[in-house]
Amino acid sequence: MATWNPWHGCRKVSSGCLNCYVYRRDAEFGKDSSIIARTSSFALPVKRNRKGIYKLQPDEGAVYTCMTSDFFVEEADEWRPEAWKMIRERDDLHFVIITKRIHRFQVGLPKDWGEGYDNVTICCTCENQNMADYRLPIFLNLPIRHRTIIHEPMLEWIEIRRYLATGLIEQVTCGGESGPEARICDYAWILEIMQQCVEYDIPFWFKQTGAKFKKGNRIYHIERKDQMHQAEKAGVNYRYERNN
């Protein structure tokens, strides 16, 4: 897995953003996360070493893009066309873009996008039912080749069967919230989404428990370093193969 953050900073748009890890980390250094700016890594996909070889190579796995911002944030509209150009140039890499702004997907979209670049997966984040019912109909009507849904942080029970039934979703990921102010993630919610994925034979990944994990009538406080491991130990992943 590789990470490319062409710009940094974001503005909170929904309840899933309340305890944003970017804001939490920036606060430790007295940095204002609401200020969006290009980073020194902006051109990372096309940077080459002294031998003229790209620094980012396919064997590093998928390139997770804009993990300290949102690729479709308004302030990045002027930079996004150049970012798309680099993504198009590096068709040997697979870029994963996670967004809460799927309604802005077509702003600055390349003219040659067509039905989507094959080397791009767009992941639509839906933390609750309200956001699922707002974002997913938009998501499913966009020209995108590879789509996944992410419920992280998962804040309540969510029903997505009608969206899975379209056959357009390639994977669903669930996870709890981290940090000292984390909200509860209920294991029953995770199992419900897993069951929905099983019904439609769609890969499911339980990524992490979050810091406050409810199972049955008990709430467990789980350290950050153990959250992904504990999720894996649950053994509820379905057809999921980690390949990045």
From TrEMBL:
<dbReference type="Pfam" id="PF07505">
    <property type="entry name" value="DUF5131"/>
</dbReference>
<dbReference type="InterPro" id="IPR011101">
    <property type="entry name" value="DUF5131"/>
</dbReference>
<protein>
    <recommendedName>
        <fullName>Phage protein Gp37/Gp68</fullName>
    </recommendedName>
</protein>
